[in-house]
Specification:
The complex is a heterodimer. Chain A contains 18 helices and three strands. By secondary structure, chain A is mostly helical. By secondary structure, chain B is of the alpha/beta class. Chain B folds into four domains: 57-200 and 406-479, no CATH class; 212-404, no CATH class; 489-557 and 641-821, no CATH class; 560-625, no CATH class. In chain B, 49% of the residues lie in helices and 10% in strands. A six-stranded mixed sheet of chain B has the order 15-13-18-19-20-21, sandwiched between helices. A five-stranded mixed sheet of chain B has the order 5-4-10-11-12, with helices on both faces. A four-stranded mixed sheet of chain B has the order 7-6-8-9, with helices on one face. The termini of chain B are far apart. Classes of the chains: A mainly alpha, B alpha/beta. Chains A and B meet through helix 3, helix 6, helix 13, helix 14 and helix 15 of A and helix 6, helix 12, strand 3, helix 13 and helix 25 of B. Strand 3 of chain A pairs parallel with strand 3 of chain B, so a sheet runs across the interface.
């Protein structure tokens, strides 16, 4: 190992280690019942983000300075048995480095915002712990060099995201909506997990370098056959659709606006909502191998973009408005990926992330902004009578009926099936214990019972 | 009256209870329970808490905390108890104790009250059957043990006990230690308590439900309102939207019901099973051309709501989504306050739609979870039967829904445990308890149970109010030994808003220079106007919500600046439309893609700088804006051309006599009719902050959530007019020619003062003006210093300069949710001459209105008109804070962190919720919920006359929504108005602490502070 390699791999490890230490520190202290003070919590997160950012910039500097476009950082195998290994590896390339820098930049800024915004909130520690988990998850996902590493980060993001949607758990709506988000995420996680298993099964590796060749992103070449590509790609598309709220999963996105404003900003304006697109970008060489997959990606993107563009026109609250506006762009990014415009997609993600975060953070300023605007124009800005028929208006107002469709056609049959299983099991149990005595009831539950 | 008219009347009556909040951009402070003001305060609270499902008082735990940290003392508790019980306080209860002792013990020691399962856990955890409760003092424990020894010696236990308790007697006889004795005592006591409770056990009452939804929810835990509200919230938001959505709701102009039918009444909706049949139902309404009231009547019939319960049912149904219902009602009735009002009868149509949806939701939920398929009219009865049978069959659990049922024996256990605790606190002898007759048992149990949790909280609340009242009245009585006298050698006079925030400002101003005289008046200075500033698109309403202005005032550039202003306006318009198209475009597909993909990354620059360096960014932004903002040299259009005032070009302004009337009104109100200084300032107030939908709650309450500068400016312009002064002279107010009036604004956010029309200040007055500015600047520094003590994020060691920077930072920070605390600390209102209480440190807790009784007539006409406005406005502010604090998510709008602006009119929680009205938690956090204590310098006779004259004032005072005390104008005697009688206040404290300067008193303190005398106002600078 040359000195340069040694140096970059240390730096590369620091990028991941900084948020990991923050999570362990904050989580550990809270776990043993010594929640640190507000000041210490925000210092810890800020230092982790700054350290991570500096290291990431340093890696970028080394890569630019030495003309490297592909720097793997090996951590090693977590599990290694004859037919299976769980390989942890990080990858610095033209996709992951910009993405991880964007992550640190936005998380740092929004973290500084949240430290003041959440001041004296009873859930201050909880919020910031989830936030630290999210940062770690984003960093791991962006830098992942194997699909199992990516899955780890993906899960952390999903977990923190659902917990922050349900942050205000003293009201009923946030946990309810958090649960919805969580369920969609689980479906998406399952798809990703299946994709990972399929990759291991078909190819023996979860390593991107093995799968897509050692060429640096975006010039990888798929080593899978046609139908293998279609299976793995299809699963990845499903995973991406869940995570990025593409049709038919879109209805969770506006429902996720239950958390405090800064978490909405960074999750659904900027980072987490782009993860699906990021996943497709990471595996974009697969698209070259399967035109059918390409068509699928483009159509999912287009349908979502058109749907969101209709829905956004009737939203009457700022957060739903912004979430559908985000969705349009995310869907367009997916279309770009499908069309093979990978650099454009990357730039689009970066630009859209920054822009939308600012809009989300300033969402509470809407009334003041609107007044300023009215004063400048000298009149109310024009609104349009619905340029569409009543049914389109209703379709938009009810968000494409996607909630009801998923509930009726997917959730309900599944629940019915499980209920039926439950009945069968009970019946079987009764049949087995026929003639036995029912378990006796406790006789008394007086206060005096010791 | 016909049935439909009755229905309409019932709906209109119910609207009294709906939140009176209109657009949030003009936040109106109002009594949250305005609709119940006809009831005495405590009764209204009880009724209100039942209707709204909110907490009427703080929780017992919060009160106990206050008892521990001295905000309530035991003296307060016993005084209030004595007051509340009157004659019956000292009645003995079975010779065990007096009623007052019993109640006092129940207040002092918090009773653990919880469902049986939690109690069991508590008993195991605290080992409560073996050890005395931790609250029982050692001596009392000793006495109790002695009592037990005597009783055992007397063979008492054997006579009455059985089972477990006897076992512990055996154990005691074997071991004879204190531990065994304690266990014996507690087990016997528990046995006796169980016995007493069982002797008085009552049958469960059949629960009664007004709404079907509540009945279904009680049985199934499923909430049918979730289904209804989801549709109704979206549709109502679209219906009232002021321009947030790009598409306007189709058929909006046809009214709520009709638009709903046209949009939801067509086939092809979502596949939700619960809306199955909705299309046909809506078709039916359309086909038969049913009106909203007809439809409501049909729905009521279908739901089996009888004629007698109609009113109650309608009220409860409207309150189910009260924020939205209230907003629709406000937009309907105060169409002058929104750009796009809603048509008449919208609320009735809203109710009609709601009831139709409710029927479908109930049918679905009751079918799905209760397999109930009969007529909805029987649904409530069905649920009640189900509940009662679940309770009757005690422990047998068959279905999951039984978790809600509480069995009788469980309830009795919980009751016995309360008794058990009280008996321990009061050390009741076992021998006595064991020999009670059934009648006596009932007496004792009733005595304990009649002082239930709500009653205890009421007493605590009264004690809490008494604590502040005693301190305040002691302080006032001590301070007002000083004689009233006008300031001698006055440098300038300044009139501030009555606002409690100005108390500290005025104090600091007077401390900075003792030759400054200050006055207080409502921040619109009794000049109600519609005002359009230069560069404003619309008129704003600058007066309390109850008034409708009759005058329009506009601001114009001076003639020579008109061209410049024209160019700037064009530039502003260009920048505005550019910004608008970026903002709109970013929500659009193609333009959004172009904008975000090309320029998006640039957004990181403002993002990072605005969050990390708020003050610097604000400075740069202001520099840039100054190039295009409206020109600074402007005038108000004061003199009217037309006969009649109107909002047209020639209808702006006033006539001379009108100006004189307004001028005279304010001067007489504050008692400034002679002794004018060369410079007199009217300073309105407003607050600047960022990223805050509730910004206008920090602005002037007397201007309906706007800043009062235009009023101050217009008033000064009137009083500077020599022709107005001539008229005033004929009415006995001689303003000397050398007196000049100036209007200005006190920004309560960053503590700065700006003046208007300084270009027209006579040259001769400039030195005085500059000296005055220096004094005001110093007062600003000191005031921000005092404010910073309450901000936890501001260190206590700040210097005044640093404090001023800190408050500036707060107002520019996007992430700051507490730019200031508004009137959070309000508790008191003083109406009288400033000099009576000058130098009294009141901790920003006192509204102050100037009033000089020597300038009033025998009927107290001036005081009457002052109180007519002040009692209403200040009580509104105080009660809004009180309710928003006591139950923040219930009466207030909860934490503002997840707030989401909707329809440009209000905020929801998160993705969708009822419209949140009231104040957010961050704005009331440091409030102490006490009713406003008025101290008025006048006589009881005058006040009685005024209460008789003015119905609103009389109602608020007599029903005890505010507390009232009058201060004798000639001495420091105080008379307190108590349940219709005037009672002399007897001071019970020593002299007030004396300090040199305010900062000596508050330095290093975070919490509420007591009163103090500021010894000597600083030497004139």
């Amino acid at each position: 190992m040359t000195l340069l390699e040694y140096f970059t791999s240390r730096l590369g490890m620091t990028v991941v280690a900084a948020p990991a230490v923050a999570v362990l520190g904050l989580g550990g202290l809270s776990l043993v019942g010594w929640p640190p003070s507000e000041r210490i919590i925000s210092r810890v997160i800020q230092s982790a983000v700054i350290l991570g950012l500096i290291s990431a910039l340093a890696v970028l500097g080394v890569m630019l300075g030495f003309g490297l476009t592909h720097v793997p950082v090996e951590v090693g195998d977590w599990v290694h048995i004859p037919h299976y290994h769980f390989h942890i590896k990080f990858l610095y390339d033209r996709l992951s480095v910009p993405f991880v820098i964007l992550t640190f930049l936005l998380c740092g800024t929004v973290g500084a915002f949240a430290a003041r915004y959440m001041h004296r909130e009873p859930g201050f520690t909880r919020f910031h712990l989830c936030y630290a988990i999210f940062v770690l998850g984003m960093v791991v996902t962006s830098l992942a060099g194997t699909i199992e590493t990516l899955f780890m980060g993906w899960e952390l993001v999903g977990l923190s995201s659902a917990l922050l949607v349900a942050f205000f758990h003293e009201r009923a709506a946030p946990p309810r909506n958090g649960l919805r988000v969580w369920i969609v995420y689980r479906v998406s996680d399952a798809a990703l997990l299946l994709a990972a298993i399929a990759m291991h099964h078909l190819h023996g590796h979860g390593d991107f370098d093995e799968l897509l060749g050692a060429n640096s992103w975006p010039d990888g070449v798929s080593h899978l056959t046609d139908w293998q590509t279609l299976v793995v790609g299809g699963l990845l598309l499903l995973a991406a659709a869940g995570k990025s709220a593409l049709v038919p999963f879109s209805s969770w996105l506006p429902r996720a606006m239950e958390g405090p404003t800064p978490s909405s900003a960074v999750f659904y304006g900027a980072l987490s909502v782009h993860l699906g697109a990021f996943l497709l970008l990471r595996f974009s060489p697969l698209l070259d191998a399967s035109p059918l997959l390409r068509v699928a990606v483009v159509s999912v993107g287009l349908v979502t973009a058109v749907f969101a563009a209709i829905a956004v026109r009737v939203q009457t609250d700022i957060k739903s408005d912004l979430s559908f506006a985000s969705l349009i762009q995310v869907a367009l990014i997916v279309v770009e990926i499908g069309l093979g415009l990978r650099y454009l997609a990357l730039v689009h993600i970066l630009g859209h992330g920054c822009f939308r975060t600012l809009q989300f953070l300033r969402a509470p300023s809407l009334l003041q902004d609107y007044r300023t605007l009215e004063n400048a124009l000298g009149e109310k800005p024009a609104t349009r009578p619905a340029g569409a028929r009543d049914w389109i208006y209703r379709f938009a107002l009810e968000r494409g009926y996607l909630d009801a469709i998923l509930t009726e056609y997917i959730a309900r049959p599944v629940v019915r099936l499980f209920e039926a299983c439950d009945r069968w099991e009970r019946a079987y149990g009764r049949w087995l214990s026929k003639g036995g005595q029912p378990p006796s009831q406790p006789e008394s539950n007086s206060l005096l019972e010791d | 009256m016909s049935r439909l008219e009755n229905l309409r009347a019932a709906i209109i009556k119910a609207t009294d209870l709906l939140p009176a909040q209109g657009p949030i951009t003009a936040f109106v402070f109002d009594n949250t329970l305005r609709g119940l003001e006809d009831l005495p305060f405590h009764q209204a609270l009880k009724r209100g808490s039942e209707l709204f499902g909110c907490q009427p008082y703080l929780s017992i735990e919060r009160f106990i905390e206050k008892l521990r940290n001295g905000r309530i003392t035991e003296a307060d508790l016993s005084a209030v108890l004595a007051d509340d019980l009157g004659e019956s306080a000292d009645e003995p209860i079975l010779g065990l104790c007096t009623r007052r002792e019993l109640r006092f013990a129940m207040l002092k020691h918090p009773l653990k009250e919880a469902p049986a399962a939690e109690l069991r856990w508590f008993i195991a955890e605290a080992d409560a059957m073996r050890k005395f409760l931790p609250d029982v003092p050692p001596q009392a424990q000793e006495a109790a043990l002695q009592d037990t020894r005597d009783w055992v010696a007397d063979n008492g236990p054997e006579k009455v006990l059985n089972g477990k308790s006897l076992e512990s007697l055996g154990a005691y006889k074997k071991r004879t230690g204190t531990a065994a004795l304690t266990e014996l005592r507690l087990k016997c006591l528990w046995e006796l308590c169980r016995r007493m409770v069982e002797a008085t056990s009552q049958q469960t009452q059949r629960p009664k439900f007004v709404r079907h939804r509540d009945a279904v929810k009680a049985v199934t835990l499923e909430d049918s309102d979730l289904l209804v509200n989801e549709i109704l919230i979206r549709f109502s938001a679209a219906f009232v939207d002021q321009g947030l959505a790009e598409w306007v709701l189709p058929h909006r102009e046809d009214g709520f019901l009709s638009a709903f039918i046209k949009i939801y009444g067509r086939p092809g909706g979502p596949p939700s099973p619960w809306t199955h049949g909705l299309v046909e139902e809506l078709d039916r309404i359309a086909f038969h051309q049913l009106g909203a009231l007809d439809s409501i009547a049909l729905s009521l019939d279908a739901l089996g709501v009888s004629e007698e319960e109609t009113s109650e049912f309608i009220t409860a149904t409207l309150l189910a989504l009260r924020g939205w219902a209230g907003l629709l009602w406000q937009n309907e009735t105060r169409s002058d306050r929104v750009p796009i009002p809603v048509p008449k009868d919208t609320l009735i149509e809203f109710l009609a739609v709601r009831l139709v949806l409710e029927r479908f939701a109930l049918k679905h939920v009751s079918h799905e979870y209760l397999s109930f398929n009969d007529s909805l009219g029987d649904l409530r009865e069905f649920c009640v039967n189900k509940l009662c049978s679940a309770t009757a069959t005690s422990t047998e659990t068959t279905a999951a829904n039984d978790t809600t049922a509480v069995t009788r024996s469980e309830r009795d256990e919980a009751r016995a445990f309360s008794l058990f605790q009280v008996a321990q606190f009061l050390g009741w002898p076992l021998g006595k308890l064991a020999t009670l007759t059934a009648e006596e048992m009932r007496t004792l149990v009733t005595e304990v149970e009649s002082f239930e949790s709500l009653e205890r909280r009421r007493i605590f609340h009264l004690a809490f109010e008494r604590n502040y009242r005693q301190r305040a009245l002691n302080a006032v009585s001590s301070q007002t030994k000083q004689r009233a006298q006008r300031v001698q050698g006055v440098k300038f006079q300044a009139v501030f808003c009555i606002d409690a925030r100005e108390e500290s400002f005025r104090r600091h101003l007077e401390e900075t220079d003792s030759h400054v005289e200050t006055f207080g008046a409502p921040g619109f200075f009794c000049l109600p106007i519609y005002y359009r500033g230069l560069g404003d698109a619309h008129f704003s309403t600058l007066c309390p919500i109850v008034l409708r202005p009759q005058h329009w005032v506009i601001e114009e550039p001076v003639y020579s600046m008109s061209d410049v202003e024209g160019r700037r306006a064009t530039a502003r318009r260009a920048i505005g439309s550019a910004g608008h198209s970026v903002s709109k475009g970013s929500r659009n597909m193609v333009r959004g893609a172009v904008i975000t993909a090309s320029l998006g990354v640039l957004a990181s620059v403002p993002l990072v700088t605005r969050v990390l360096f708020p003050r610097l960014t604000a400075k740069i932004r202001r520099q840039a804006e100054s190039l295009v903002k409206p020109v600074p040299v402007t005038r108000l259009r004061m003199e009217r051309l037309d006969e009649k005032a109107s909002s047209t070009e020639t209808g702006f302004g006033f006539t001379l006599p009108e100006m004189a009337n307004f001028g005279e009104r304010i001067l007489r109100d504050i008692g400034l009719v002679n002794g004018f200084a060369r410079l007199v300032m009217f300073l309105g107030h407003g607050s600047v902050c960022q990223n805050n939908p509730h910004k206008s709650a920090y602005d002037c309450g007397a201007c309906s959530g706007m800043a009062g500068m235009p009023n101050a400016r217009a008033l000064s312009a009137m009083l500077n007019d020599p022709r107005v002064r001539e008229i005033l002279a004929t009415r006995g107010i001689n303003i000397p020619p050398e007196t000049h009036f100036l209007g200005g604004l006190h920004n309560t956010g960053d503590d700065t003062i700006t003046f208007t029309d300084v270009d027209f200040l006579p040259r001769s007055h400039r030195p005085e003006f500059e000296a005055a500015k220096d004094i005001l600047d110093e007062a600003c520094l000191r005031n921000s210093h005092e404010r910073c003590r309450r901000f936890y994020s501001a260190p206590l060691t700040l210097t005044p300069q640093e404090a001023h920077l800190h408050v500036e930072d707060r107002t520019e920070d996007l992430a700051q949710v507490r730019p200031e605390f508004g009137n959070s600390t309000n508790a008191m209102c003083y109406v009288g001459r400033r000099s009576r209480v000058s130098g009294l440190y009141m901790d920003r807790r006192c509204f102050m209105h100037s009033y000089d009784h020597t300038t009033d007539d025998a009927d107290a006409t001036i005081l009457g008109r002052i109180l007519g406005a002040v009692v209403f406005v200040c009580a509104g502010i105080n009660l809004q804070y009180l309710f928003s604090y006591v139950d923040s998510p219930g009466w207030g709008s909860g934490t503002k962190l997840p707030h989401n602006i909707t329809s440009l009119l209000g905020v929801m929680d998160g993705a969708a919720s009822d419209l949140r009205t009231g104040l957010p938690w961050q704005g009331v956090e440091i409030h102490e919920p006490v009713r406003l204590l008025f101290v008025i310098e006048s006589t009881p006779e005058n006040l009685t006359k005024i209460m008789d004259r003015n119905a609103v004032v009389g109602r608020l005072i007599r029903n005890e929504w505010v507390q009232l005390t009058v201060l004798n104008p000639e001495s420091n005697e105080l008379m307190h108005f108590k349940q219709g009688n005037w009672v002399r206040f007897e001071p019970d404290a020593k002299e007030l602490p004396v300090v040199e300067r305010s900062s000596d008193w508050y330095r290093g303190q975070r919490e509420h502070l007591g009163f103090a005398t500021i010894k000597s106002p600083a030497a004139p600078s």
